[in-house]
Amino acid sequence: MQLPEKAFTHGGKFHADDVFSAALLKLCRPDITILRGYQVPEDFDGLVFDIGDGPFDHHAKGSPVRDSGVPYAAFGLLWRELGPTLLHPDDARRFDEGFVQPLDLDDNTGCGNQLANSIMAYNPMWDSTDSPDACFEKAVEVARDILDHKLESIRAIRRAEEEVRAALAKCRHGVVRMRRFAPWKQYLIPSKAKFVVFPSQRGGWCAQAIPAGFGTQALKVAFPRAWAGAREDELPAISGIETLRFCHAGRFLITTGTEEDAITACETAMAFDER
What we know:
Elements lengths: L5 E5 L5 H13 L4 E5 L9 E2 L25 H13 L2 H21 L4 H7 L11 H38 L5 E3 L7 H4 L6 E5 L5 E5 L25 H5 L4 E4 L5 E4 L2 H14 L3
Parallel strand pairs: 1-2, 1-3, 4-5
Antiparallel strand pairs: 5-6, 6-8, 7-8
């Protein structure tokens, strides 16, 4: 889809739907001019969204609904066209499910959404003399920054795939060893690996328990209860691991002075397996 030089949306009070739609258009074409008003000019030859009963307006009767049952709003309709040009198609679909659909649902039903409410707060207050269009532009810049960072974080996960899978191929006794941190959850959660070990930004090594599935706090194997939240000076005696420095109270993360001790901590946890 080739974007024109200008776009048009409704004026007055704005919502997350039209704001994120504008942010998406500006990500795809930074020089696009977005105009606002209460009626689309008859001679307007740009892209129209969230007004005008066109392909990117969702207010008309019979507007499209996803297979999930979530109706499209303008943001979702634009993402359906532009998303696969910004992300791998699988990632674009997941982003729609996790980020776009909640905003579309809020716009169509008023069900409530914290991000949508935060964007709405950029509207002028009832007793303000601020220009709605200037406030809209400010909100669009915020949304664009959020969208830009969200998409880049997803691309980073995709870039990590080769490195994480190479480490997984060398997994021994349920422990994956990585030479540096890279986003691993998407690739290790479905695997048989129980722990992942990687260098800590603070020096030393981290070991993290791998969740039992997506969207759950349950772990395949947790670190021993006796370690959870114990002080640094207590941990070596409690664990028998000389450089064990920290164990999160949630039992999902430990730090050690050496890679060998991080691996030993994982092996000890699997031997205990106190589920």
